Amino acid sequence: MGLHVMDQFTYQIGLEEDDERLDKWMSHVLTDLSRSYIQKCIKDNEVFVNNKPQKASYRLKVDDEIIFRIPEAVEPAIEAENIPLSILYEDNDLLIVDKPKGMVVHPAPGHYSGTLVNAVMYHCKDNLSGINGVLRPGIVHRIDRDTTGSIIICKNDLAHNSIAGQLKEHTITRKYRAIVHGVIVPDEGTVNGAIGRDPKDRKKMALNEQNGKPAVTHYKVLKRLKEYTYIECQLETGRTHQIRVHMTSIGHPLLGDEVYGLRKSPYHLCGQTLHAMVIGFIHPSTGQYMEFTAPLPEYFEHLLQILE
């Protein structure tokens, strides 16, 4: 459901929705909006049940009429911030950055500062492609907050269109390093399964043949450890959380992954042990193939020594 500025949404509750919490029901129906945003709207009295504002915990009844006036979206001003960047390569068209753990790629509700975009805006001044709008200047692809490694930043629209085209054609080389639970027996394998929103939990992705997009991950064993396996994954497609979902689907979730993996890791990790190591592409201006390697982060090297 695409929502526009100052939309009004009206709905009457049916039998199967009886006794559901107002905020939970709204986040199922209005999938474009986060649950925290919906709760804020309820708190700000922008949601009416039978013409009266209600609490997020209100239990719906059959025939209740919901009216939600979606507030006007205000585009936040994104500030350039002097955050050090680890740069693997730079020229007039693009920048290859080695992203650290815990850094969000682009601004979003709850993360308007400290992102890779804030850092890149400071570094590149006004030289960033504008195709993805003010919140995502230069951003043509992304990696998760707790995934480290190589990411391409485009400085102009020509570079952006070229890299976006290569991503679409699946011709960009993307090799990741990961540590997974369990010992993988075959030396290599391929996981082929469409990925889409998890129907039971919209914050997660899942194998979803009905509504997902095709996704292919090739993996090979680099080292078998006592209870874990150190692997390389090569992406054919780049779906959200692809490696995390695919490896979980074959019974080998990533070590440290608190969303898809085994809840408690015996090691103090900030999220999944996943590193975007190699990125290769055709340069937008020269037509030459270029490849860059982001070294394994220190925590990852240290963990491998412990596990051995």
List the topology elements.
Blueprint: E1 8-12, H1 22-29, H2 35-43, E2 47-49, E3 52-53, E4 65-69, E5 87-90, E6 94-99, H3 116-124, E7 148-154, H4 157-168, E8 173-181, E9 188-192, E10 195-198, E11 201-207, E12 216-224, E13 228-235, H5 242-249, E14 274-282, E15 289-293, H6 298-307
Parallel strand pairs: 7-14
Antiparallel strand pairs: 1-4, 2-3, 2-4, 5-6, 6-7, 8-13, 8-14, 9-12, 10-11, 12-13, 14-15
Helix pairs in contact: 1-2
End-to-end Cα distance, whole Å, is: 49 Å
CATH superfamily of the largest domain: Pseudouridine synthase
Strand content: 25-35%
Number of structurally distinct domains? 3
Q: What's the total number of strands?
A: 15
Give the class from helix and strand content and strand pairing. Answer: alpha+beta
Question: Averaged pLDDT, please?
Answer: 90
Major β-sheet, in short?
9 strands, mixed
Give the C-alpha Rg.
22 Å
Helix-strand sequence: EHHEEEEEHEHEEEEEEHEEH
Residue stretches low in confidence (pLDDT < 50, at least 5 long) are 1-6
Give the CATH class of the largest domain.
Alpha Beta
Number of helices: 6
Helical content class: 10-25%
Give a short synopsis of this structure.
The chain is of the alpha+beta class and 308 residues long.
Structure description:
This protein is of the alpha+beta class and about 300 residues long. It has three domains: about 10-70, RNA-binding S4 domain (Structural Genomics Hypothetical 15.5 Kd Protein In mrcA-pckA Intergenic Region, Chain A); about 75-170, 2-Layer Sandwich (Pseudouridine synthase); about 170-308, Pseudouridine synthase (2-Layer Sandwich), CATH 3.30.2350. It is about 20% helix and about 30% strand. Strands 5, 6, 7, 8, 9, 12, 13, 14 and 15 form a nine-stranded mixed sheet that branches. Helix 1 (about 20-30) crosses helix 2 (about 35-45). The chain is globular.
